[in-house]
Amino acid sequence: MEGNLRWVALTAVAPVAWGATYFVTHAFLPADHPLYGAALRALPAGLVLLALCRQRPRGAWWGRSAVLGLLNVSVFFFLVFTASQLLPTSVASTVMAVSPLIMMLAAWPLVAERPSGAHLAGAVIGLGGVCLMLLGSAGGISVPGVLASAAAVLVSSVGHVLTKRWNTRPADAGVLASTAWQLTAGGLLLLPVAVAVEGAPPPVSPSTLLAFCYVGLVATALAFVAWFAGLRRLPAGTVGLIGLLNPVTGVLLGTVAAGEVLTGRQLCGLALVLGGVALGRPPGKGGRTSRRDRAASGRTLRRIRVTRAARKRSPC
Questions:
Q1: Do residues 249 and 210 make contact, with C-beta atoms less than 8 angstroms apart?
Q2: Which is higher by pLDDT, 17 or 85?
Q3: Cα separation, 36 vs 30, whole angstroms
Q4: For residue 154, pLDDT beyond 50
Q5: How many whole angstroms separate alpha carbon 124 and alpha carbon 121?
Q6: 242 near 6, Cβ under 8 Å?
Q7: Tell me: the pLDDT tens digits for 236-265?
Q8: Distance between CA atoms of 80 and 15, rounded to whole angstroms?
Q9: CA–CA gap between residue 41 and residue 228 (Å, rounded)
Q10: Rounded to whole angstroms, how far apart are CA atoms 38 and 75?
């Protein structure tokens, strides 16, 4: 149980850092360069991690890195940047809170992790709290901004579950290496598109440079390593519920730093979100849910072994 809690604490670094990203992007990054904003967030972080791990992709990981880089980095970062500029900080981070349900549904067919009753209940309770926070938010709500946030939830949830599926065994790529490859691939995919669509890079002031350092090193390099480490060792449903700390951070930071009004309705919503996270915490080693999770993980490993054995036997 203590080991699980340590992984929960490490994984929580990611949504807390991401919740602050909405405020930093909205306040300090150039609003008219979303492609450059996404590329300059991803590529430096990927190169830093690549320098630390000193590993190149091998075999299937060339293609996997491209797919995961497209989903988890290129498309996701662009949509998050767009939503951050169109919505208040609290609203932008709040919409992302539907991700636990999406991750649970994606994890069922992709990694054979059937969501437990506690995970589903926690997701519903947390989502109810998110709705209260969204309805009680100050400022106008941009429909394109909400759609960008919803699309970001969809692509990142599928990408995160695929990351878990392709990086399950100790013999697979390590968390640091696979994260470095994803970020580098995603940044390289974004850069030529940014040059073609947005032209010259935006001017960078000292405050903008510091903001890019935060979103690149803290909210990307550090946060993604923590998040994917949690995905490798915890059920996807648990990790998805930990992601509810993203809107909590966004709402609190928007209230403290951006002057957005925190209403009584939003406070009730925050309490429900935290209750949903607590309900979906990892069980003890002897719990019924723990046995089910271990059985699901065993089925996933057996499925991967059978698939790979069939590919080796195939004459193609």
A1: no
A2: 17
A3: 9
A4: yes
A5: 5
A6: no
A7: 778 877 877 877 787 777 777 766 666 777
A8: 13
A9: 18
A10: 9
User: What Å distances lie between residue 248 and 98, 210, 254, 311, CA to CA?
Assistant: 13, 24, 10, 45
**CA–centroid distance for 242 within its chain:** 10
The CB density around residue 189, as the number of other CB atoms within 10 Å, is 19
Taking residue 82's Cβ as centre, other Cβ atoms within 10 Å add up to 25
Residue 119 has, within 13 A of its CA and on its CB side, a CA count of 29
pTM of the model: 0.73
Between CA 111 and CA 94 the distance in angstroms is 27
Buried/exposed code over 32-50 (b: 16+ C-beta within 10 A; e: otherwise)? ebbbbbbbbbbbbbbbbbb
Q: What is the mean pLDDT of the chain?
A: 80
Q: What's the confidence (pLDDT) of residue 20?
A: 85
Place of tokens 């497209």: 70
- Residue predicted with more confidence, 180 or 115: 180
Contact 150, 95 (CB under 8 A): yes
Q: Report residue 132: phi and psi, to 5°.
A: -65, -40
Contacts of 305 (CB under 8 A, 6+ apart): none
What's the Rg (C-alpha) of the chain? Answer: 19
> Once rounded to an integer, what is the mean pLDDT over residues 143-163?
87
Q: Which two tokens stand for residue 144?
A: 């394109």
